[in-house]
Design a protein that fits this description.
Two copies of one chain form a homodimer. The first copy, chain A, is mainly α. Helix content of chain A is about 65%, strand content about 5%.
Chain lengths: ~475, ~475
């Protein structure tokens, strides 16, 4: 009955975190003291203090919502995290495991023995269990599956049979169903037999005798209509349904667009098999945007901020390796023009300016295009328009900023041709960046890949090598061969 | 009654968009034909065709949810967008204006005359009106405010009195309130007098005679409890409330963390003044992550993808200007070592590798830290740990990839000292990037600024200048002065 648990505002949660930190610190000090002066008298006094500390900590934890405990666990370094985790009442372990991030969940599960894990996950619903299953040690699975009843086992298997990005993996099974030929009065009486309705219940699902969904009855409509009307006369027949194989992000967009709270999931024959709820969709929206941000920076996955150095090195490994290759190739482009640089070493000081501005503005373009692709707002007819527009923007930006830097360079080095080369190179580099900023994500889309991931590494490669090539090539042509 | 409007899956919405594109294309061709062969006979035939086209388009639009029309309007270039906008039934204009992005809203409102605007916004609720108000031309405001009743005017003014980032600007005023001394039976009968309950109603607010909130009654609890119980005996007294001055993002996090659907907003004395709902919070979460992504790329605001070249130039202007300055400063650092580059021109080809890898790994660090800051998970005691860890990661990454590139360089140029300089420079540059990746966002936080915005431009400046300085400085010391 989470409805009555005390919730915390962000700032009071911060205070709580500080308090727990404090209690842990005091406890550590007490232990330290105990170790140093081992006398019996002090030992007793310290023990008393420790017990007080512990009691205070326990009181603090017992009053917290599982989501808040999850938050606190994530904010604590591993050693303190595990102290707190051991103090949490066992019956809430499952809920907390569901709330923490994958990286932190691993550290918590690693600290539990088989019996604790089984006790923690047993109270969970089938869909929640399915979410946790892949993180559990394989040796607990047989016993765990044996503890489920036939329906639960079937539900867990159903949830596991869908990919992470499919609606089937996100649905739960807590549907309240009714028949359309009864009156609202009967429905009201039926509901009173429940001790509680499932969380996020804003509508009842209306089924016929074949379990086919024929409509939904929003609770709001149940409440405002006369009790002697039949369900069939009141319900909405035209319902948003999802199929378990639908794309989860599309479903999340539908929830967002149509302000849904819950929606039925049906199979190909229209039979009800589960439901989606807004809370799961909100988590999905958040995760999607986070993984996009992380992916753009080349992080493979969310990191526990207190993970080991080694885990972090592995997480960032691949990106840096790719980056090293592209940077190396870009440096080979510079190598082509060593002769020119030898003749005029100032070229070496100016070339990074061209490459850097190209990278920035290409990145601005890419972010806009990826966003438009994500919402499917870029049709093929729109691409040409977009391309034309981005090239226009690039031309003006190149002219303005290239002009500024060109004048500065011409004045600094008393070399007007060099300034002119700088300006022209900036314009060309800007236009290259615009071409690539639209072209790379569109190409990745065409190749069936997610344009949010890795687009920018190709972009930086193109704008770096291209920028060096354009600037040094132009300089060689204009300054030394005329 | 949006509950019964047909909703579209993402793919069927795509089809719809393609169909509308098609109809607009055919219409354009028809007009073209008409202009070329102006004969009376063809004119009549063309007119007929056009009329059919138009009817089809109208049918297509009338079946769509306002959110879907908004989606289609955003995906169309300006000329086609306005054709569709004129065809949309006037009574839905207001809802659609609420759904479209700010940039697109401007283009739509610019196309409406005063009467159309007034007709569009009049059916809206006070909170919705307040959202639109800043985008409306100032000359319609007096007439608009005059058309509101006293309560609405007060609500609009209340909503406008809060900052964009405060709960007060996001709340609505559609609360259903009850007293705690009545029975559930009375509540049920009271609700039947409503024609409809407000969207997103999952709980009723319980007030005393001073309008102070004393509890909430979730509809679920109303339904499962016996009708002769009193509201006071069933309701939850310990309620999540928000104050209108609370931070909107904190409220969104609370909705996410506690799976809320609606929550009361109360003033300092506990009097109910509005409510927050999950749909608004979801929009907020989405906008927050989008503006973070845009801000990171230096875009001031969301752009209409079909906006004019000029509007885009202005939007990207400031960022490129700052970038030009930092790139220029970095190039001055290279200028310090022109002598060394003249002696060994290969230094110019290698220096961008060091700077580029430093930028990438610094960016990985910054993204992690900004994320941890956004969820308030980094306390002061954690910073030192984080710093130590990131330095460790940087050291290993520098050693590994610096080692690889060092060996490659030593082999390529038959110059072992040069390879060694490369390796050491990479390690130092990685550690500089880690220091800056943690330090810059923390500093921005200390200065009261949003670390998500602009952190990376300082980072790139530091890793570029620093990388050039470290590599060229080391090379000068080791290669020429021993």
């Amino acid at each position: 009955m989470s409805e009555v648990e005390t919730r915390k505002t962000q700032s009071s949660l911060q205070d709580q975190l500080a308090q727990i930190h404090d209690l842990l610190e005091r406890q550590r000090q007490a232990e330290e003291l105990l170790r140093r002066h081992g006398g019996e008298h002090t030992q007793r006094a310290e023990n008393l203090m420790q017990r007080q500390n512990r009691a205070e900590l326990q009181k603090c934890l017992d009053g917290l919502h599982p989501a808040d405990i999850a938050y606190i666990l994530e904010a604590l370094p591993l050693d303190e995290r595990l102290i707190i985790w051991q103090r949490v009442k066992a019956d809430r372990d499952g809920d907390i495991l569901l709330e923490v991030s994958d990286a932190v969940r691993e550290t918590l599960i690693a600290d539990m023995d088989q019996g604790e894990i089984l006790a923690a996950v047993e109270p969970l619903d089938a869909d929640e269990l399915a979410d946790l299953l892949e993180d559990l040690p394989p040796e607990v699975l047989p016993e765990l599956m044996a503890s489920l009843d036939a329906q639960q086992r079937e539900q867990v298997q159903a949830a596991l049979s869908y990919g992470e990005d499919q609606v089937g993996a996100l649905m739960d099974f807590e549907m309240v169903t009714i028949r359309e030929d009864v009156t609202l009065e009967v429905v009201l009486r039926y509901l009173r037999r429940f001790r509680e309705l499932p969380e996020q219940t804003d509508k009842l699902f209306v089924l016929n005798q074949d379990n086919v969904l024929t409509g939904v009855l929003p609770l709001k409509w149940l409440l405002v209509n006369s009790p002697d009307k039949a369900v069939g006369a009141v319900m909405a027949r035209d319902v948003d349904t999802f199929q378990p194989t639908d794309d989860a992000d599309d479903a999340a967009q539908a929830f967002e667009r149509y302000d849904l709270i819950s929606a039925p999931v049906v199979d190909a024959e229209g039979r009800l098999i589960g439901r989606l709820t807004i809370d799961v969709m909100v988590d999905r929206i958040r995760e999607e945007s986070e993984s996009e941000a992380l992916g753009r920076a080349g992080l493979r996955q969310e990191e526990d901020i207190f993970s080991s150095v080694w885990a972090s090195v592995r997480n960032r490994w691949a990106w840096l390796a790719i980056n090293l290759c592209t940077a190396f190739l870009a440096s080979r482009v510079i190598g082509l023009f060593q002769g020119s640089i030898e003749k005029l070493v100032v070229l070496a000081t100016l070339m990074p300016i061209v490459a850097s501005i190209g990278g920035s503005s290409g990145n601005q373009t890419i972010i806009k295009i990826v966003r438009a692709i994500a919402t499917d707002q870029v049709g093929t007819s729109a691409i040409w328009r977009l391309w034309r527009k981005e090239l226009g923007v690039a031309f003006f930006n190149g002219l303005i900023w290239g002009g500024v830097i060109g004048v500065v360079v011409a004045l600094m080095y008393h070399d007007i041709p060099l300034g002119a080369v700088m300006t022209v190179a900036m314009v060309l580099e800007q236009m290259l960046a615009a071409l690539m900023g639209v072209g790379i994500p569109m190409l990745m889309l065409r190749l069936g890949r997610d344009p949010a991931m890795g687009s920018n590494i190709f972009l930086v490669f193109m704008t770096d090598s291209g920028g060096f090539f354009i600037f040094l090539g132009l300089a060689s042509l204009v300054l030394f061969h005329h």
